[in-house]
Amino acid sequence: MRFERYLILIAICSVVLASDSSPLQDFCVADPNGPVLVNGHACKDPKLVQANDFFFSGLHLPGNTSNAVGSRVTPATVAQIPGINTFGISLVRVDYVPWGINPPHTHPRATEILTVIEGTLEVGFVSSNPENRLITKKLVKGDVFVFPVGLVHFQRNVGYTNAVAIAALSSQNPGVITVANAVFGSTPAIPSDLLAKSFQVDIKTIDWIQSNF
Ligand SMILES: *[C@@H]1O[C@H](CO)[C@@H](O)[C@H](O)[C@H]1NC(C)=O
Q1: DSSP states of 131-150 as a string?
Q2: Measured from the CA of 67, which atom of ligand 1 is nearest?
């Protein structure tokens, strides 16, 4: 009997620990000029908080997709909305030209839930080692898909018109690590002989890929 109670207690505790802890105040509007360094941003004096601290305008506007990958992410995170600080949530708009991609990337601090507003997207994510299973699906307008926190994922417009998606992320500061940029475009560069061994190709191939970043 005691043991069963113990198990129930563990179950309850794990439910509690599965979400962010509750904020200790109504809001903590980020003060980017705050002198105090915390894990996140210091709070603005509540008396100085304005409606505009909780506001962002512009997600109706297409992002500029004139780039090598043919997509653009327009974020609405704590950098754009200081009032979203500490709430563990944010939003992005993604625009894609036909066959444009949002290249493989990961958000170290957020799960993402994406919905297609216009067009058709092929989306996918890869599970962690050792399976590295690709889970992929074709989405049309109105479809919703989830990318689990930390996993490498991507989207591609597989239609003949522009595509638009809106995604919510479970962090005010989800972060983005684009795999290609991080591995081949770091500053300073990761040694090319190390990458050659990692990718099982010769050093010249690595030098060539690195020169594109
Ligand atoms: C879009 O980006 C390209 C490349 O950076 C630039 O040349 C162009 O002026 C931009 N277009 C707009 C409308 O901002």
Answers
A1: T--EEEEEEETT-EEEE-TT
A2: 4
